[in-house]
């Protein structure tokens, strides 16, 4: 199922393209991005895997900034299993780096999934 099929959220949304952003705005869906996964220690990866992760992080931040700029709703989330539990508040700081205001970040962590 995808946005055309009625889903209300996209998890991660790392490489969301302009068509995906348009569909999210049209349907009112939101992104549950999980940027904390990009901030895990280098020691967990081979050099090649870490380089690939860094390239993906740069591309994801660029695309998610565009989604924020255009008004896509964001919700707080973590990638359970990859990021240790009880560290989801770190995600709030990452959201601000996408251009979200402090108030929008608080809303994303409390209200967005309910609206």
UniProtKB/TrEMBL annotation:
Domain of life of the native organism: Bacteria
Domain Amidohydrolase-related, residue spans: 4-113
InterPro entries linked: Amidohydro-rel, Metal_Hydrolase, Metallo-dep_Hydrolase
SUPFAM superfamilies given in the database record: Metallo-dependent hydrolases
Residues of the signal peptide: none
Annotated protein name in UniProt: Imidazolonepropionase-like amidohydrolase
Organism of provenance: Streptomyces umbrinus
């Amino acid at each position: 199922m995808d946005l055309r099929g009625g889903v209300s959220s996209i998890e991660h949304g790392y490489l969301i393209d302009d068509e995906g952003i348009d569909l999210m705005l049209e349907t009112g869906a939101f992104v549950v991005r999980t940027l904390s996964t990009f901030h895990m220690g280098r020691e967990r990866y081979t050099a090649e895997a870490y380089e690939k992760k860094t390239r993906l992080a740069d591309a994801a931040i660029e695309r998610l900034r565009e989604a924020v700029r255009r008004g896509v709703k964001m919700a707080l989330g973590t990638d359970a299993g990859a990021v240790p539990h009880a560290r989801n508040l770190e995600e709030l700081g990452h959201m601000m780096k996408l251009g979200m205001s402090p108030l929008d970040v608080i809303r994303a962590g409390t209200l967005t999934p309910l609206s």
